[in-house]
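Session log. Operator J.P. requested a structure for one protein chain; no other inputs attached. Running the standard single-chain path with C-alpha cell output.
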Amino acid sequence: MLLTYQECIGKFGTDYRIKKEIASGSLFMKEKGVYSTLRNSSEIEIIMRKYPKAVYTGRSAFYYHSLTDEIPDHYYLATRRTDTRIKDPRVIQSFLKEDIFEPGIIEMKYNNSSIRLYDKERMLIELVRFKKKIPMDYYKEIIQNYRKLTFELDFGLVEDYAALFRNGAKLLETIHMEVL
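Structure written below.
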C-alpha cells in the first residue's frame, strides 16, 4: 500500500519514527513524499499517488485501454489549468479547461493498481481532436481497434463529449466516417 508523507506522519507520529520504520524494513521510501508498505510497487501506481488530481490521457490511456500495443515513453497526464506544473521528467502534462476536464473520468484496475483515466468514448474524441499531431500509423492502429469496439461504445456519450468542444459537429462527422 502506498502512503504519502502526511499519511505516514498520521500513522507513525513523527519523522523519526518513519525513519525507524524504513530502517527496520517495514516501510520503503519509493520517491520523495511517497512511501510503501511493500518492497515492490508499480511506477503507474506511484505516479497516481504522487499526482492524485491528474488523469491518464493520450498515449497512456490508449495503451491502458488496450487500443494500442505501443508502450508509451512517458506518462501522459491531464490536469486542470489551475493546477501546478508537474516537474517530473517521466510525465507529459496537458492542461485542460475546467468544463472539459471532468467529463469521462473513470477509475480502472490496471496490474493491481487503481488508476484514473478517461473512458474509451472520451479518448475517441481526444484521438480525433489531435489527429494532426499523432503519427498516421499510430492513428490508424487505434481507429482499427475502435472499429472492433463499435458495439461496446456508448455513442450517446460520444455525442455528449463532442458537444463540449467548439468543433463538436466536425469531430462527430469524422468519427462517423472513420469508425462506424
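Operator note: Residues 46-178 form one domain.
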